[in-house]
Structure formats: C-alpha cells, structure tokens
Amino acid sequence: MTAEVSVFLADDDAGFRQAYRRLFDSTDGFRVAGEAADGVEAARLIAARRPAVALLDVQIPGMDGLEVARDVLATTSTKVIMLTTFDLDEYVHTALSLGAAGFLLKNAAAQEVLRAVRTVHAGHAMLAPEVTGRLLERLAPPPPQRAHAFAGQVLSARELQVVRFVARGYSNQQIADELFLSLETVRTYLRRMFAKLGVNDRTHLAVLAYEAGLLRDPR
After folding, report:
1. Share of residues in the chain with pLDDT > 70 (%)
2. Which one of 146, 171, 185, 195 is at 20 to 30 Å from 107 when CA atoms are compared?
3. For residue 206, is it within any domain?
4. pLDDT, mean of residues 61-78
5. Measuring CA to CA, how many Å separate 150 from each of 72, 134, 145, 179, 214?
6. Residue 205: which residues within 8 A CB-CB, separation 6 or more?
7. Cα angle: 64, vertex 68, 72; to 5 degrees
8. How confident is the model at residue 219, as a pLDDT?
9. Residue 77 confidence class, pLDDT cut points 50, 70, 90
C-alpha cells in the first residue's frame, strides 16, 4: 500500500484553507498534517510535524512565505510549493532560488493542485514550462556585465540555443522541431547540461538562464 502524502497548509484565508483541506481529505493518498494562518505558526508547526509537502502563501502575515520557506528548507526535508497570484510574479524567482520546488497559482483547479503535490513529492519541480517562460520573460534582467555559467567555454552554441528555448517555456518536442533535431537528441543535450551545471530539472535550468540574462542576450 502506498504511503499517504502529508500536506501542510499555510494561508491566512480560512476559506482557502478549508477548500484545500476538503480537497486533500476527500482524495485517496493524501492527508492534511496541519494548517496555519500566519508565518510564525507555520514555521513552528512544520518543524514539529515534518510534512512531506508544505503549501505556503507568499503573503502570509507574521513572517512572510519566503521567510518561512527559507527556514523550512534549511532545517527540514519538507518540499515547499509557494502559493501566489499573477500579481506576485516577482516572488517566484526568489522562491525557486531558496530551493522551493515550484509555485502554484491560487486559482488553480483541484486536479492541478493534486498533480503539483504529487510531482513535488516525487522529487521534481512542478513549475509548468509555459508558466516558466511567461514569468522569466517578464523578470529577465539586462545582460550581466560579468561572465556567467553559460559562457561559451561551459556550454556549446547548440546547448545555449536549447537552454534559451527551455527558459521560454518550450517543450522538448517543440525544441526539437525548432532546431531540426530528434527528440532524443534534445533530451541528451538537457541531461548533459544538468550534469555540467549541477541542476536536476528544467525549472532550475531556466532560473540559471534568467540569472545569466540569457532571455535578452541575443548571442
């Protein structure tokens, strides 16, 4: 029998927490390990109960969601999903940089919420490629003045092409079509870049591309 995924809910909106609790309580394979309406209580309870996954509202009062995430990720093995809205896109990069597994829009459908928690619990980032591209395009800074991890001596010209498409939200098949490559060749490029750059998934590869300014770097 598969063990249940324990989930912690941290949001100051009681109605929102209640809706999520009903969702998890009514779905096989999940249980709610606790909930909190403020960040201080969330950090305390997560440290005590060690849920598998915590859903944290970015704007939770008392101790904001990013600070809670920083504390939780530094002291526990709990995976973190940040809850946000399109109005708070600027927090996403910070959350991912802290080690959060991804973020979920607060108007997400029930099945999307369940899929996100399952994905994160399995050890993967859950930021959808199309959302990654949209957010990183909005947040992309000017090209940096210093050398970065994507300089030519680290990645080949073809690998740089692939990583730019990843950062813009293209799927592996779409990248293959754009570059006239086979799907397996694209996967090989991604595996090679993961190893070179020390990342485990497409989301964090895209974050590195964002930090390097590649979304505005035409070279």
Report:
1. 80
2. 171
3. yes
4. 92
5. 30, 21, 13, 19, 8
6. 163, 166, 167, 190, 193, 194, 197, 199
7. 170
8. 41
9. very high
- Give me 81's structure tokens: 């999903």
The whole-number average pLDDT for the span 103-127 is 84
Q: Which amino acid is at 130?
A: E
| Secondary structure (3-state) at 24 | helix
Residue 149, domain CATH: 1.10.10.10
* Lookup: tokens for 96: 């991912």
Boundaries of domain holding 192: 136-212
Residue 207 amino acid letter: V
- The pLDDT of residue 70: 92
- 29 and 89 belong to one structural domain: yes
Calculate the CA dihedral of residues 90, 94, 96, 100 and round it to 10 degrees: -110
With tokens 């002291």, the residue in question is: 75
Give the residue-averaged pLDDT of 156-178. 85
